[in-house]
Amino acid sequence: MLGQLVTSGIAIGATYALMALAMVIIYKTSEVLNFAQGDMAMLSAFVAYMLLSDYGLGFVTSFTIALAFAFALGAFLEFAFLRRAKEPNLLGLIIITLGLEMMLYGVASWRWGADQKDFPFPVSDFEVHQLGGDVVISDLNLVTLGVAFALMILLFLFFRYTKVGVAMKATQQNQQAARLMGIRVGRIMMLTWGMSAVVGACAAFLIASTDTLDPNLMWTPQLKGFSAAVLGGMTSLVGAVLGGFILGVVENLFGGYVSVEFKSVVAFAVIVLILCVKPSGLFAKHYVRKV
Amino acid sequence: MKKLLILAAVIAALSVAGAAWAGPVQGVTDTEIKIGQWGPQTGPAALWGAVARGTGVYFDLINAEGGINGRKIKYYMRDDGYNPNRTKAIAKELYENEKIWGFACGVGTSPGMAVMPYIIKNNIPWVGMATGSPHWTQPPKKTIFGVYPLYPDEAQILTSYAIDTLGKKKIAFFYQNDDYGKGGLEGCLRELKKRGMTLAADVPVEVGETDLASHVMKLKKAGADAVIMWVYPKHAAIMLGTSAKLGYRPQWMACSTLSDVALMFKITKGLWKGMIFGNFAELPDSTNKLMLKYHRAQQKYAPKERWGVFFYAGFGFVEPMVEGIKRAGKDLSVDSFVKAMETLKDFQGIMGPITYSAERRQGIKQVFLAKCEPDIMMVKGKKITYGKGKRLSGWLKLD
Question: What is the distance between the alpha carbons of residues B115 and B125, in angstroms, rounded to a whole number?
């Protein structure tokens, strides 16, 4: 049982890792906690579903269009709502994201209704591989792991070695100075939100294939992603991913050996614990406030 | 002239006396009865919003046929998002502002519990709440009439079937960790205790949980050969998917809240095959005359709706209310309605036989069991496999 719990924990941890990555991208650039993360992703999943079932398009086409939609949605939300905030302080911006979350949820419910839907996916969760001793891992789990790692590495390289990536970090450290240095802060923010939405959408497609597709799809994954990001460090990409895996495994072990009834509490207990013990997260460097 | 004045005075006196005799009944006029319903049209339980919309179509049908005793039904549907605070506000608004006469159905145990004290205090008729919780009818209240068979009873019936007919030895229970799930658990434990057996595994799940690997491992470790599910459709789907993946294949059984077999088959990607589930209403492809009539009404008044069990449950839960109003006659008041309802004996629409009496407010005490067997249909020239229910029993009741 231990082996399976750990394996399943890593598998589900990969989805938490993706959500955590999405949240960290925005946090790294603007210190805003994006509560609309989950529903931006959910809406993209619905768009993919619509393309797949109503228009009968293939997987590659539908997913590509849906990801492009996600990017556009993220950029649009930043441009149209976040940026318009008058004299925004951090709390105000976070509240705006809460409002956006409700709007997106409403749009999805209105357009597609509340009936659970079945999200088709090219990779099956039932094709399993025996890892020895009764432990199995499915094709879908492997794909999710692959996507999580690939994105983590890509984003890591992006932030460290590309001009735009460095510009994003600069924007987070000091927006005024960044502007003075010639960085188009507005464009950076739109790009950040667009990228974050795309990562979130990837998570949503993978989650929708094991869960059922309905407007509440990303409610819990977002919370778990947030918990994973807090655990790993809100400014660390690698931390977010590792945080996701750790959370997935810890949850499963708790559910299997301690209490299946209180399994859902683990993610929240983690948030409280980390904020009390090591608020910057396990893997992030703790930056003293900039002068 | 004097004679005319005396005649006028007599007529005036009689009409005043007549009016005082009848007494104004809120929500009832000679031409109209006002009935309201709350339901989750948005939010996590919006799947069951179909019930309230179904009732709307049922009333459209009745009004098209002339109403009840010449009175047409004016229907008020409100969205409470499954939030008991909103339900309370809605009940108050409908009763005090819109001046409705009674409430029909209403999805959700917690929302219903929030408004029950208000309904009792104001003596408002309330029929057919869309939940099998025992709270409504035990102990019985004057104006509240339950229709949905009780969860503990249904669980008991499923448990007996598993042991007697299917020969299962190790029964496990997978349930939502709230009133609804625990209601089912109670019935299962009751039946097992009667036979001197114990539950192989007791596995609760929180509403927000989306990963069920540890839940499946617990069931697998216990070696249960039959698992009864008392959860939301979402969790049923994830449970079946995760179990299939981890190679665990017991006999699955489910509560009637999961009896929308076409939907469940679809969202479980076909794993619903072989599921044995309880039913409180006819199966969607039933050839029962009323079912056919209601289906035609749905196609006429709400062509975009799906003909699923939650939708036509909105008809079935309200059938006894309409019958009660009919039997009360022209003189419709809360008291005459209650008396009329108490005369219903084995009244049957598209659900089980409904009986009320002076002491009994639980209308239906029976369910029938069905098994999911897939069938093929042609849609736009393509063959689609869909979930179909095959009846396994008649209307079963507890002794």
Answer: 13
